[in-house]
């Protein structure tokens, strides 16, 4: 059973929710973490288009209350520990990719 938390409706009536640790748009995974707007490279353009935005979830702009809901759901999912071999392998793979990209891989 999937864990789903509603975040918001987009202006064009698409559903944004957190499902199993991912921010999803209409059920399709976008990202598994939020980016604070002050850390986003296009923050000025985003603020011109959406003055109330405080965070980005991939291509989805979120206000502070929406980001709080999404972040709480993401944290709740991360707090559940799955010790199965498959889950451990997935976490290791993610850690390796984060390290590779942090070191400047293309």
TrEMBL record:
Organism superkingdom: Bacteria
Protein name: Uncharacterized protein
């Amino acid at each position: 059973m999937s864990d789903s938390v509603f975040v918001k409706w987009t202006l064009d009536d698409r559903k944004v929710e957190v499902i199993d640790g991912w921010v999803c748009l209409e059920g399709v995974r976008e990202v598994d973490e939020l980016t604070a707007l002050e850390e986003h490279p296009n923050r000025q353009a985003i603020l011109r288009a959406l003055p109330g935005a405080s965070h980005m979830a991939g291509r989805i702009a979120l206000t502070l209350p929406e980001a709080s809901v999404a972040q709480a759901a993401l944290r709740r999912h991360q707090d559940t520990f799955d010790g199965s071999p498959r889950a451990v392998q997935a976490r290791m793979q993610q850690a390796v990719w984060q390290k590779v990209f942090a070191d400047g891989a293309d």
